[in-house]
Amino acid sequence: MLIKKRHGLPEPVDNPDRWVISYADFITLLFAFFTTMYAISHVDMGKLEKFTGSMKEAFKSQKTAQHITPIEGIKPIQQESFQIEKDLKAIIQESGKIEGIRITLEEEGVRLSFSDTIIFESGSAEIKDDIKPLLNSILSLIKRTTNRIVIEGHTDNLPVKGSRYSSNWELSSARATSVLMYLLRDGSIDPSRFSVAGYGEYRPIAPNTTPEGRAKNRRVDIIFIVKKEK
Question: Full-prediction pTM beyond 0.85?
């Protein structure tokens, strides 16, 4: 509706219902906000983990190549350790044997831990046939490096029963030695790079008071020793 003209142009009448447009915009934004919050609260964790893993893998090479700024009182993890860790993870993923295997970065190097049941039958130091392909792949990595290799055998604190070994000391030492002899079987690697230790029950990584803790303690570790910077 026009009420008058000024300078030849019509002047619009103020619309008393303009607040409805602002109110509608507000309601739309509020709806979008709560819809977003609802969607976030119902994330598919499986898909989220896959997405997160993909992003980590994509940026992994960049992160490992970055300069690590030393923090006072803490030694930076050397690039060599990162590379060995990366190679070991690739080998294990390719083998499909993930349960019961753990890789940790330590000050002395990279530790690859096997639950005893993956490699041995109960009370035995004879290597299972189905783990040998994985050990072959680890041997190939050892051949590509110059690191010293330490093989450690560990047990829980339960007495040995129904075995040819009379103590946990003997069993842990026999298992570590068995892995060593398998890796050295083809004579293509210098034995002086290796050392073996059997610690029995005396270096646990979990309390021996539960079945779960004892299972963690029964293990064989292969350690890639990284030379310390002088």
Answer: no
